[in-house]
Amino acid sequence: MKLVTITTAFALAGNAAFAAEKTLDIGVSDALTGGAAVYGLPQANAVQMAAEEINAAGGINVGDDSYMLNVIAYDDQANPTEASNAVRKLLDRDGVKFILGFCCSGATGAVASFIEYEDAVMLVGNAAERSITTREIPNLTRTRPPADYTGAAAGTFVAEKGHERVAVLGALDVGFYASYVDAFEKELNAAGGEIISRESFGLTDRDMTPQLTKIREQNPDAILVAGYVEPAAFIYRQAVELGIDVPRYGFTSGSEEQFLRVANSEQMEGVWDLRPTELTLLSASENGIAYHANYSERFGIAPSPSSPYAYDQTYALKDAIEAAGTVEDTEAVAAALRDLPVPDEVVMQYLPVDGKMFDQNGQAYTANGAFQWQDGNWVFVQELPSDAAAYSDFLSTID
Amino acid sequence: MIEILQQIINGMAIGGVYVLIALGLTTVFGILGIAHFAHGSVSMFGGYLTFFLMTSQGLPLAVAIIIALATGFVLGMLIELLAYRPVRGASHINAFIVALGLTMMVEGLNLQFFGHEQVVIPTDFNRVFDIGGVTIPELRLYVILAAALLIAAMTIFVEKTKTGQAIRAVAENRDAAILMGVNVNTIPLVVFAISTMLGVCAGIMVGALFAIAPGIGEGLVIKGFAVLILGGLGSIPGAVIGGLVLGITEALAAGFLSSAYKDVIAFVVMITVLLVRPQGLMGTAR
Predict the structure, then answer these.
(1) CATH number of the domain that residue A12 is part of
(2) DSSP character at residue B212
(3) Could you tell me how many CB contacts below 8 A there are between chain A and chain B?
C-alpha cells in the first residue's frame, strides 16, 4: 500500500514537473433548462465534448505554450435578462474572453447588443434571428445560417411540390420563426401560391387542437409548422388525431428521439423538416458519424441535429486562436475568425464565402436541405437552393 | 357547425382536467377554508410518478396509475397531518403561508427526483373516432369519460355515504357537526386524501394528453382557482360547470379569435359572470 502511494506521488510530481500547459477558460451561455433546453443543453454538451477532444489532442498551441480548455457553462434559460447576467458573470467574475453557445435568438440578441464594447469574442450557435449578424459586430460570429435564408428555400420547395394553399401554424411571436415564414411566403407567392392562414401558438402551449380545427375547416393543400420541437411534435400528433391528412412541412431541427417523446413514429410518418443540412445520421459526413457516436457514448443520448453548431464553434475558436497566436488579444482572435478557412474537424457541411468559413458579417452558411420522416428516421431527401454568396451580399445591405 | 362541435370536444378534455383540479380545491376550501396552492404541484407529482413507474420500472399504465393514486392518498393525509393541522386553529394567514411554502417544497422535490425535462406519459390510445365529421381521439375520449366517472363517483360519495354526509356537515357547521358526533380530526384527513387523489388523476391526464414539466402545476392551480370562483366557492356542481365552461371557452377563443388571448378571454368570461353573479354560477349568496 505504501509502495503504491509513493509511486503515485512520484508519478504526480513527475507530471507536474514536465507539464507546461496553461488553462484557458471558455464560457458557455445557453438554455440548460426550460423549454429551449432541447437546443441549449446539447449545444453545451457539444462544447464540452469538443474541449475534451482538443485537450486530449494536446490543447490549443500558442507559440511555445499549450492551453487546456476549461468550460464554464451558465444556464441562460433562453431568457434575455438571464443571458445578459450569465455573460456579465463570465466576463466580470470569471474573466472569460471567449463565449460560446447561444441557442436562442432573444437571449442572443440581448448579449449581442453589448458584446461589441467588451474585450471578448462571442460565437453564436443555433440562434437564427437574422439581425444578429446584420450589424457587422466585429467580435461576433455565427455558425448557423439565418432563418430567412432557409425559409426562402423552403418556400420554393413547397411550391415545386404543387401546393398552392398553405396554412401556417407557428410560434410567430418569435422573430426568427416569423422571418422564416415571411421568406417562405415571398417565394410561395412568386410561384403562384398563397398562405391562407397564419395561426400562432406560445412556446409553452401544448394543446394546438383549436388552431388545427380552424385550419382543417379551411382545406389547405399543406401545413407549415414553425416552432420548437416539443410544440411542433404535439402539432404533428394532434393533426393526425383530427384527421388532417395533407402534407406537413416544418422548421424545427429536432432529433428523432425528441419527437418520439411526444408523438409516435406512425403519427410522424411523412413529415418534412425544411432546415439547414444539420446533423442527420443517415446523411452525415465522416466527421458527423464520429460526432454522433462520441456524443452518444459521452452523454448517453443521441445529439440533436443542431448541436454541432456549437461543436464547430469550438474548433473554429481553436484555429482562430492558433492563427492569431494569442489568447489575450481578442481583436486579433476575432479578426482571425473572419479569415478562417473551414476547420477540418467540423461536423456541419459549410459553404465557404470567398474561401472563408465566416463572411464579412461573421456569418457562416450551410446548405439547406429537405428531410423527411421515414420509418422512424429523418431521411435526407434533397438539397434545397442555397446561394451563400448571394445571401451574404444581401445580408451586407441590411442595417 | 362541425367546427364549433369540434372545438367543444377539444375544450371538454382540458375542461375535464380543470374540473378534477377544481374538485380537489373546492373540497379542501369548502371544508377547511384553506387555499391549497400546492395542489397543482402535487398533481404534477402524480403525473411524474406515473411516468417514472412506467418508464423506469416497466410497469403497465394501469398498475402505475393505481400505485400513483395510492401514493396520492397517503401523501394527501401526510400533507394535512404535517403541514396544515399544526396551524388549524391559527389565523388564516398561517395556512396561507404554509400553502405557499408547501408549493415551493413540492416543486423542488419534483425537480430533485424527476429532473427538469418535460415528460409525456406514453399510452397506446392512438385510434381516432369520426362521428359525422367530428373527430374524437381515443385518448381524449378516455380522459373525458374518466373525468365524468370521477365526478359521478365524487358526487355519490359526498351525497350518499356517511363519510360524505359528515364532510358536508363539517363544511356547513363545524360546531354542530362536533355535537352530532362527527370526528372532525378524521374528516380533514379524508378530504385531503381524496383531494390529492383527484389531483393525481388530473396530473396523469395532463401528462398523457400534453406534458408534465416544472411550472405547469402552477398554471394548473391558477386555472383551478379560477374555476372555483367561477363555479362558486365550495360547490361541487359549480366546479364541474366552471371547469367545462373555462375549457370550452379557451378552445373557442383559441379557434375563433386568437390563441394568444385565450387565457385573457377565459378570464374576461369569468369576470363577466362574477359581475352578474358575485357568488359564482352555482354558489350561494351570503
Answers:
(1) 3.40.50.2300
(2) B
(3) 79
Interior/surface letters B171-197, b for 16+ CB within 10 angstroms, e for the rest: beebeebeeeebeeeebbbbbbbbbbb
**Residue A4 pLDDT greater than 70, yes or no:** no
Q: Crossing angle of helices B2-32/B216-231, nearest 10°?
A: 90
Domain co-membership, A212 together with A167: yes
CB contact under 8 A, B128 and A202: no
Render pLDDT for A47-59 as a digit per residue (tens, 0 to 9). 999 999 999 999 9
Whether residue B36 contacts residue B25, with contact meaning beta carbons closer than 8 Å, is answered with yes
Q: Which of A326, A324, A245, A311 is nearest to A278 (CA)?
A: A311
The answer to whether B65 and B204 are in contact (CB under 8 A) is yes
pTM of the shown model:
0.81
Q: How many domains does chain A have?
A: 2
When pLDDT is cut at 50, 70 and 90, the band that residue B217 belongs to is confident
A381 and A300 fall within a common domain: no
- Together in a domain, A15 and A116: yes
Asked if the Cβ–Cβ distance from B118 to A200 is below 8 Å, we say: no
Q: Judge: B3–A217 Cβ closer than 8 Å, yes or no.
A: yes
Closest in A201, A202, A210 to B255, CB measured: A210
Tell whether A58 lies on the interface with B, counting CB pairs under 8 A.
no
A133 lies in the same domain as A206: no
> 3-state SS of chain A?
CHHHHHHHHHHHHHHHHHCCCEEEEEEEEECCCCCCHHHHHHHHHHHHHHHHHHHHCCCEEECCEEEEEEEEEEECCCCHHHHHHHHHHHHHHCCCCEEEECCCHHHHHHHHHHHCCCCCEEEECCCCCHHHHCCCCCCEEECCCCHHHHHHHHHHHHHHCCCCEEEEEECCCCHHHHHHHHHHHHHHHHCCCEEEEEEECCCCCCCCHHHHHHHHHCCCCEEEEECCHHHHHHHHHHHHHCCCCCCEEEECCCCHHHHHCCCCHHHHCCCEEEEECCCCHHHCCHHHHHHHHHHHHHHCCCCCCCCHHHHHHHHHHHHHHHHHCCCCCHHHHHHHHHCCCCCCCCCCCECCECCECCCCCCECCECEEEEEEECCEEEEEEEECCCHHHHHHHHHCCC
One domain for residues A247 and A114: no
* A268 & A381 share domain: yes
Same domain, yes or no: A78 and A140:
yes
For chain B positions 193-222, those within 8 Å of chain A (CB to CB) are 209-211, 213-215
pLDDT digits (tens, 9 = 90+) for B224-242: 988 988 888 878 888 999 9
Model pLDDT, residue B286 = 58
B236-263 burial: b if 16+ Cβ within 10 Å, else e: bebbbbbbbbbbbbbbbbbbeeebeebb
A177: domain range?
Answer: 148-282+369-396
Radius of gyration of chain B measured on its C-alpha atoms: 19
- Most B CBs within 10 Å: which of A213, A259, A301, as the mutation test of the B interface? A213
**Residue A17's pLDDT is what?**
43
ipTM (interface predicted TM): 0.83
156-185 of A, contacting B, C-beta below 8 A: 173
Q: Cell 402524480 appears where?
A: B46
Q: Within this chain, do residues A117 and A201 fall inside the same structural domain, yes or no?
A: no
